[in-house]
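so the lab meeting is tmrw and i was supposed to have these ready like two days ago... anyway. pasting both below. for each one the top line is the aa sequence and the line under it is the structure tokens. i havent really looked at them closely yet so no promises
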Amino acid sequence: MRSISLTKASLLLSSLLLLLLLLALPSPSQAADPKQPALFGNSKDPVDIVSDTLDFDQKKQIATFTGNVTARQADTTLHCDTLKIYFSDPGRKLKEIIATGKKVVIKLDQKKGLCRKLHYFDNERKIVLTGNPSLDDGKNIITGETIVFYLDEKRSVVKSGKKSRVKTTIFPGQKNGLGWK
């Protein structure tokens, strides 16, 4: 296993943490708390990515981490089998991030998101979870065919599919309910 902790990679991959916003979105009943720390701690916190391999194709502007991938910044962790980061040609601006695997796991404190594919679109500032997606906050859980987060709107949509409907289980009295910080 190789640990990748490069300044260049940290700058380019700091946007990876936007993916983890799904665990930080407030529920409609929660007001924004100005005392809350930055989303993933200080944005200057380093991004550490550990994987079996890293293949950066400069011509195509794609960084591909494969094999037991773990990405961390502050208190946020992402686990997946493959992490692909797409950049636009000029200036290497982040374009898209795709995390895939048998089990993609995002953790922030006691909150957890699970799916088989997590796709972040930078131009739309949108995250799409597919492949048995679920969001857990303690005992509270929500599942569906697709979970979409619109980051700028602070809104999410959980869609059902042909074989399954949206399912939500909420335990009254549990701190934060389904309120994703």
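ok protien two:
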Amino acid sequence: MKKPKICVVGPGVVGKATLRAFRDKGLETAFIARTQESVDKLRSEGFTAYGRNDLMNGDYDYDITIFTLPTPTNNKKINLDAMELAAIDLGKRLRKTNKYHVVVVKSTCPPGTTENVVVKTIEEFSGKKVGVDFGACMNPEYLREVSAYEDTVKPWVIVIGEHDKKSGDLLASAYKNFDAPIYRCSMKEAEMQKYVHNLYNAVKITFFNEMREIANNIDVDANKIFEYTVQSCEGIWNPKYGTKDRGAFSGACLPKDTKAFLHFVKGAGLEADLLKKTIEVNEKIKLNSASMLTSFKADGKVTNGNADAKLRFAELLREEEMNTN
């Protein structure tokens, strides 16, 4: 398969890092920007660049279009205006072309956005059908702003959420010379994975900030104990810890220690909101599991789960029997 030609819509931090990485791997690249001022600036920096109204007469000869567009949160709700406008423009470009093309969303967006917003808009304005005339993928970015290019050209992992195999194959060919494992899944799974990625980072930062506040208030050196923790804590050094479908945390330590430390914190006149919510959520999961376990004992079925969940409930049932004997 020949090297695909790539056009990036959205010349921001992610867009520039993405385009430079593909360009440095030997692919032909170009930008599409919203204003003539942006187009002129990009061209002065040595990039091939076009405006929103360019390449509309069947002369759009790129194989892949990548959306690296802002998806800001306004009034607690994501704003997809830039994504929709880009999808409208791409639909108009594809209307007059006969070449198979793949649209790729790199922007962080809620599960279902690529299918229900981007793809449907392109279909509406192009008159073409996804899976037949064009393909679609969701390809999350994991870069850090301070090292955007370095993280893009040498990624930890490449996740391709694909509408179908043909779509994924074309995008995978663009990553042929990147030294990173490539995982392929559905578009919705890729969208969800990016949120899990970001939200875990947010929760981890909040946890250690909360623990630091408590440590500072009881005259404990947080930096010192955190240094020890990153070496002692299985949740840090074992990457799979907590990710398996094993239900609520239980056992001899975690339930009693979370509650005991929360009681200590309250007694010291301090707060630990994240710890409190962790206990509440765990109890809720336990109640849901108990309800499903009752159903499993009754008919041996798991209505909302998979084979792993059924195995887990079977294990819980055995544990319950052992505890009552």
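from a quick look at the 2nd one: The beta strands are 6-9, 29-33, 49-51, 64-67, 73-74, 77-78, 101-105, 134-138, 158-162, 182-186. The longest helix spans residues 187-217. will dig more after coffe
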